[in-house]
């Protein structure tokens, strides 16, 4: 009993959204790109921003956190927010985080004071006097507010000061696909303008696979503004390292056949690596950890995935949403489904179910990889639905 507790204490694996993994594997290239960006900023050379997109659980959030740490450690001014989807809240978060970062920066040469002056200057300005609200539409409170102008002025003033100290402003935004068209469009146009004025302001964003499409829809020049990186499944070699390095470091490596089984069941998904690694480690006290421990613990790992990734999302869905998802899962769990086929299965026209589809997209459960297709944003969601659904398929029909 005591041994088992000690074993659990030593377990290096821990699945959880945004939780730093014991070993961040397979992201060397992404780290390198940002490292190069920082080096270029120090030489006053310009760059594009970066957009990371991928399914849920592939490690976008933890990568963003790592990159921010890296940039901050190399004297860049960094701010990070997670988009809430609410324009006013997002603006407020951006102002707040940039403010905070400016107060914390460790640069020498009076930069901190200059940044402080810039910020208090902008805070005290009255924007209404410029009659600036005329150029934006009157749709929402955020759009008619002074936020876009204030933000542009703030970023321009700050980056002007930062540039003199060979630094730049890096704004990290998680769940960027959630952001409303305003402030999203404003942020992109600010980065665009700063580029034209040779000022170092970069958005480093992360989001679901539909993110590149959301950006191009908002600004036609989005494609030229960013370098696009897909964050996906890890190679077998990287997955092996993701299991073996932490296990070895904590004193109990996996045997070769245990490792092969783990690579197979995790399909290179970072979230799965943590879940299967954790369960296998706990399942056996042997050293090295044998294949048998892995096979014995697979059900436990799947239960952890159900809890962490699937159940809550399924619960949040309405009965029509569930019927839609179940139809997708029945059509196929691996590749995208055509919306026409989903409609067919539900005995409706595509028009009749388009609202349900849009709601599921808004909830971040599915996305449209191409016109007329839908796919799950969470790896394994289709299998979960089939697994959780009784064979008659009626319970989730909500009738
Ligand atoms: N490169 C990686 N190697 C190993 N585990 C990782 C890696 N990236 C993420 N993870 C783990 O995967 C899980 C999901 O990561 P997260 O950043 O929340 O994904 P996302 O933001 O894409 O949904 C976390 O438990 C995290 O520790
Ligand atoms: Mg995330």
Protein model, in words:
With 399 residues, the chain is α/β, with parallel strands linked by helices. It has 3 domains: 203 residues, Rossmann fold; 79 residues, Helicase, Ruva Protein, domain 3 (Orthogonal Bundle); 82 residues, Arc Repressor Mutant, subunit A (Orthogonal Bundle), CATH 1.10.10. 57% of the residues lie in helices and 9% in strands. The chain is built from 18 helices and 8 strands. The strands form 2 sheets. Strands 2-3-4-1-5 form a 5-stranded parallel β-sheet, with helices on both faces. Helix 2 packs parallel to helix 3, helix 12 crosses helix 13 and helix 12 packs parallel to helix 14. The longest helix has 25 residues. It is globular. The protein binds adenosine-5'-diphosphate and magnesium ion. Adenosine-5'-diphosphate (ADP) binds next to helix 3 and helix 13.
Compact description:
This protein has 399 residues and is α/β, with parallel strands linked by helices.
What is the chain-wise order of helices and strands?
Answer: HHEHEHHHHEHEHHEHHHHHEHHEEH
- CATH C-level class of the largest domain is Alpha Beta
> What can be said about the biggest beta sheet?
5 strands, parallel
User: Got a strand count?
Assistant: 8
- How many structural domains can be distinguished in the coordinates? 3
Number of helical elements = 18
* Biggest sheet strand line-up: 2-3-4-1-5
Give the names of the bound compounds. adenosine-5'-diphosphate, magnesium ion
Structural class: alpha/beta
- Spatial extent as radius of gyration: 24 Å
Shape category: globular
Q: In CATH terms, what is the architecture of the largest domain?
A: 3-Layer(aba) Sandwich
Question: N- to C-terminal separation?
Answer: 47 Å
């Amino acid at each position: 009993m005591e041994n088992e507790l000690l074993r659990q204490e030593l377990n290096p694996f821990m699945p959880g959204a945004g939780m730093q993994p014991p070993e961040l594997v397979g992201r060397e290239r992404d780290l390198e790109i940002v490292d190069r960006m920082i080096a270029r900023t120090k030489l006053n050379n310009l760059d594009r921003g970066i957009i990371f997109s991928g399914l849920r659980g592939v490690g976008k959030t933890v990568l963003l956190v790592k990159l921010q740490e890296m940039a901050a450690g190399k004297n860049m001014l960094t701010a990070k927010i997670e988009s809430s989807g609410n324009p006013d809240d997002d603006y407020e978060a951006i102002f707040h985080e940039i403010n905070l970062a400016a107060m914390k920066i460790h640069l020498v040469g009076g930069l901190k004071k200059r940044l402080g002056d810039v910020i208090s200057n902008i805070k005290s300005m009255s924007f209404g006097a410029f009659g600036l609200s005329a150029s934006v539409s009157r749709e929402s409170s955020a759009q008619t507010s002074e936020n876009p102008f204030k933000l542009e002025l703030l970023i321009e003033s700050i980056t002007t000061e930062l540039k003199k100290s060979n630094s730049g402003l890096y704004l990290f935004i998680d769940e960027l696909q959630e952001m409303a068209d305003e402030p999203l469009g404003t942020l992109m146009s600010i980065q665009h303008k700063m580029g034209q004025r040779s000022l170092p302001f970069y958005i480093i964003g992360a989001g679901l696979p539909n993110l590149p499409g959301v950006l191009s829809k908002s600004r036609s020049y989005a494609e030229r503004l960013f370098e696009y990186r897909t964050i996906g499944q890890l190679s077998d070699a990287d997955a092996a390292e993701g299991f073996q390095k932490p296990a070895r470091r904590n004193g109990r490596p996996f045997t070769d056949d245990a490792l092969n089984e783990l690579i197979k069941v995790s399909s290179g998904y970072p979230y799965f690596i943590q879940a299967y690694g954790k369960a296998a480690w706990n399942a056996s006290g042997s050293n090295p950890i044998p294949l048998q421990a892995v096979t014995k613990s697979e059900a436990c790992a799947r239960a952890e995935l159900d809890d962490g990734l699937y159940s809550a999302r399924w619960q949040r869905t309405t009965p029509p949403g569930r019927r839609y998802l179940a139809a997708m899962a029945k059509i196929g769990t691996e590749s995208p489904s055509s919306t026409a086929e989903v409609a067919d299965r539900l005995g409706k026209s595509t028009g009749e179910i388009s609202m349900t589809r849009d709601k599921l997209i808004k909830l971040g459960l599915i996305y449209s990889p191409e016109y007329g297709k839908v796919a799950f944003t969470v790896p394994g969601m289709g299998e979960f639905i089939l697994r959780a659904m009784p064979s008659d398929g009626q319970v989730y029909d909500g009738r």
